[in-house]
Design brief:
Elements: H1 2-21, H2 23-30, H3 49-57, E1 60-65, H4 71-84, E2 88-93, H5 96-113, H6 115-122, E3 134-137, E4 140-146, H7 150-153, E5 160-164, H8 171-175, E6 188-193, H9 202-207, E7 212-217, E8 224-226, H10 229-233, E9 234-238, E10 241-244, H11 247-251, E11 274-278, E12 285-290, H12 292-295, H13 301-311, H14 315-326, H15 339-343, E13 346-347, E14 361-367, E15 371-377, E16 379-381, E17 384-395, H16 398-407, E18 410-416, H17 421-430, E19 434-439, E20 447-449, E21 454-457, H18 459-471, E22 475-478, H19 485-492, E23 494-498, E24 504-508, H20 513-528, H21 535-547, H22 552-559, H23 566-571
Parallel strand pairs: 1-6, 1-12, 2-4, 2-5, 5-6, 7-12, 13-22, 14-18, 17-22, 18-19, 19-21
Antiparallel strand pairs: 3-4, 7-8, 7-11, 9-10, 14-15, 15-17, 16-17, 20-21, 23-24
This protein binds zinc ion.
Residues 218, 220-221, 223, 261, 263-264, 266 line the site of zinc ion.
């Protein structure tokens, strides 16, 4: 009897101690329930404990992570705890549908299943808001916003900013989000994501963070080590050629795959207790990196190893493996257009003319507050096109555009249809060969509507076309382009990353108008050129279609055009006779 009482007391004491010292960890252990109604379990997830502690006592935190490692749950616990204390929380998710399902199926359901949370929701002091976007909770308030809707967060002064899956967000909008913290004494910043490519999204945070890597100790030789894919699991034997370190598994792949000590080669317990070793412990932003070797307690190693060997056959799959399983960004060639790439297309011999009377000039225009314009010539030598630059610049309206078109004897132009539809309509009214481009990611093939002068095209495919022209040195630029800072900034601000559906998309990190002008200019060039116009877009679209797991026949069947292809047919005849 006496013993039992003593134990009960000590457990309560321990809870009380935890409540005072690590409040978020206390909530996670003693109150929180997952969406499935289960208590959180840290036995095989010891790497999460320091993250909970850091959420309690560090202002700035970032986690570069593999998928399904429990970090999102930590953010859930943390933001509710801070709101209960009276803080204003800005919780950002990539898109509106992510936000809606996060709040409705995750947060709301969970609050209902945890008595303490339910109580805090009920006790909200103010005239209660409880919607998908706004929730009064305890003494505080939480605003859940989608990264693509700046209007939703621009008026909200926050104490804590949560970026959940930063790499999938609108980078331009969220670069302004930390300003929302300026009037707060707390200024808490938490960014978490499955990374994409280097120097983008969460990797930017990681690089300026303490860079904490999880280390465990080998029970045999006592060596502390990180759990690294290429050191502890597989062995590199050549370029893109790897071998499993587990000889038993190689003999019989139905076995579980081991993880091995870098020093003595003995098997390690991947879920053993460990510690984070920070490369830059004095930095303000604490950073953690998590991979599936130690971070995925539900996934057997053999499954991860099999996924790896499948992924080595294809760059996209390999990138996905790095990002989602290893939690590290990928350096894929061509994921960015660099200044160096553009400089490699310049030549001292070429001067852009003041005006142009020859043939083959095409124009691309991107409409924003002003219209960004690129005008190039199409010169085809032995079947290979080149695009010497005629003009780069900005005009204020459709009249300015018309003057440029006349000055350079432009044959075709493409302008983006959205968002300034009226400007585009006015421009089309005075320019007979101006096509309006619609980006549509479900546009399986580029579609040309001659009657309405509209092109519908996949955004990724159209921006890939710019990269292709640069890689193939098809652009001929004058030296002066090296001083065109705005142009260079716009061209290099986008990064080609994998989105949450495993498809490539270009995401801009700053203004990118000239990049789109160039893309539209190439569309116009391809409409004009005698080469198999739109061939690039078709091939690329086909590749993307394969990513979606549909056959070309299925696609053509859906469009209802089996012979000739809709675009090629549509475009024939444009070459003849249209003028401004
Ligand atoms: Zn060892």
């Amino acid at each position: 009897m006496a013993l039992a009482t003593q134990e009960t007391v000590s457990l309560e004491d321990r809870e009380e101690e935890l409540r005072r010292t690590n409040h978020k960890l206390y909530l996670a252990i003693c109150h929180h329930r997952s969406t499935r109604g289960k208590p959180l379990e840290f036995g095989k997830m010891k790497f999460l404990v320091p993250i909970y502690k850091a959420l309690d006592n560090k202002r700035e935190l970032c986690v570069q992570k593999s998928v399904q490692c429990g970090v999102s749950e930590a953010l859930v616990v943390s933001h509710l705890e801070e709101a209960a204390k009276g803080l204003a929380i800005l919780y950002v998710l990539p898109k509106t549908d992510n936000r809606n399902s996060f709040v409705q199926t995750r947060i709301n359901r969970m609050i209902k299943s945890v008595p303490l949370y339910e109580k805090l929701l009920q006790s909200a002091s103010v005239a209660k808001a409880d919607s998908v976007m706004l929730k009064h909770y305890g003494r505080g308030i939480i605003k859940y916003v989608a990264s693509n809707s700046w209007a939703d967060f621009k008026e909200f002064p926050a104490d804590a900013l949560y970026l959940d899956e930063k790499d999938q967000m609108d980078q331009v909008v969220i670069s302004m989000a930390p300003d929302r913290l300026q009037s707060s004494e707390h200024r808490l910043y938490r960014a978490v994501a499955n990374p994409t490519v280097e120097e983008f999204g969460i990797d930017v945070d990681w690089r300026e963070s303490t860079q904490g890597e999880w280390n465990i100790r080998c029970e045999s030789c006592r060596t502390w080590q990180t759990l690294d894919w290429f050191e502890n699991v597989v062995e590199t034997v050549g370029t893109n050629d790897f071998r499993s370190r587990d000889k038993e598994w190689v003999k019989d792949p139905t076995n579980e795959h081991g993880v091995f000590c870098v020093r003595c080669g003995k098997p390690l317990d991947r879920f053993a207790a460990g510690k984070y070793v920070h490369a830059h412990p004095n930095r303000k932003k604490v950073g953690f990196r998590i991979n599936q070797i130690f971070g995925a307690r539900h996934i057997p190693m053999s499954e991860i190893v099999e996924a790896f060997f499948r992924a080595t056959k294809n760059q996209t799959d390999l990138q996905l493996f790095y990002n989602s399983r290893l939690g590290i960004p990928f350096t894929a060639k061509g994921s960015k257009i660099t200044r160096g790439d553009i400089f490699s297309c310049t030549t001292a011999e070429y001067q852009a003319p003041d005006n142009f009377e020859g043939t083959g000039a095409v124009l691309g225009a991107d409409v924003g507050k002003v219209i960004h314009v690129a005008i190039r010539r199409v010169v085809t030598t032995k079947g290979n096109p080149n695009y010497p630059l005629l003009y780069l610049g900005k005009v204020r309206d459709e009249n300015g555009l018309l003057r440029l078109a006349r000055r350079f004897n432009v044959k075709f132009g493409v302008i983006d249809a959205l968002p300034e539809t009226r400007t585009v309509q006015r421009a089309q009214a005075i320019m007979s060969s101006l096509y309006a481009a619609y980006y549509n990611d479900s546009a399986r093939y580029p579609r040309l509507d001659k009657q309405n002068k509209a092109i519908t095209i996949d955004r990724t495919v159209s921006l890939d076309r710019v990269r292709e022209a640069i890689d193939a040195k098809q652009y001929i630029n004058p030296e002066a382009i090296k001083n065109a800072k705005e142009y260079l900034d716009h061209m290099s601000s986008s990064v080609r990353v994998l989105d949450d559906k495993g498809r490539f998309v270009w995401r801009e990190t700053g203004a990118d108008h000239y990049l789109h002008s160039e893309a539209y200019c190439l569309m116009a060039a391809d409409m004009l050129a005698s080469r198999n116009i739109f061939q690039f877009y078709e091939e690329e679209s086909e590749e993307r279609e394969e990513q979606r797991g549909k056959t070309r026949d299925e696609v053509l069947g859906e469009i209802g055009e089996r012979e000739g292809g809709p675009t090629r047919q549509g475009i024939t005849g444009i070459n003849a006779g249209d003028t401004w």
